[in-house]
What does this fold into?
Amino acid sequence: MSLIQITKKSPGTSGTPGSGGSGEKPSLTYGTSAAPNNRAGFARVTIGVTSGKGGVGKTTVAVNLAVGLAQRGLKVGLLDADVYGPSVARMLLLQDEKVRWGEDKMIPAENFGIKIMSTALTSPEDDTPFAWRSSVATSALVQLLDDVDWGELDVLVVDMPPGTGDVQLTMVQEVRLTGAVIVTTPQLVAVDDVRRAIRMLLDVRAPLLGIVENMSWYDTGDGVRHHPFGRGGGALLAERYGVPLLGQFPLTDGVRAGCDDGMPAVAAGSDDDKARFRALVDAVLARPEVQARLAATEGAP
It folds into this structure.
């Protein structure tokens, strides 16, 4: 497969999405939500981390979940499907990396024991905008699945973009999701949008693994706990849709600094932050959908 959106670098080209190529866009056979393609067949388990709402810490959860799964000895990949606003590379200390090509496929970057692919790795400058129409974005997403040498993985974690648009629909039509982890804050403004994301997943029959409530509180030095975004949003969603509340995470400077510095909290954070993310990993691994796929015979449908 060879798309013009992300091309192998040659003299005089940038090798970035939207550059180079023959000028003729090849046709793609897309799946449907009822009969999705299996473009992530290299992974026994595929987990989408989504929210429907920007700014809730979805990528923070995806990065720490992926690294935490690798800490359990699993072979893990992390696909940054937020093609318009990729943040995974910075959170894993890969912001200065550029995409590398093997003979005919891109080679994923690696850090903290996981393989990573992101449109950020294809950008010539750190402020280059991905000003793509949806058809280009979805084609690029397919290429990040098909034209990357992922190898054999136990788990592929997909960091989804906010919203319920073409990229999300493409993902559920091109990948057989084992399940989705839904990230929200307690605030009802966030919960309203997250509900829409959940309904989209239910409409396309994608399993829900559970809810993560982020930014649930913060503690001050005087021992007082504050809830700047209210309380109960995650529990409300879990009860309404009949799925577990997988974890609640406070606002901590350590997690924020770890994201900016490329040092995931599950690997380099405080003992409390590590424990919370490791508990999330336990909760995800305990889900029957995940257990069944990890226990399945290699190559089984």
About this structure: Confidence is low (pLDDT under 50) at residues 1-5, 9-26. The chain has one domain: 43-295. Residues 1 and 257 are 39 Å apart (CA to CA).
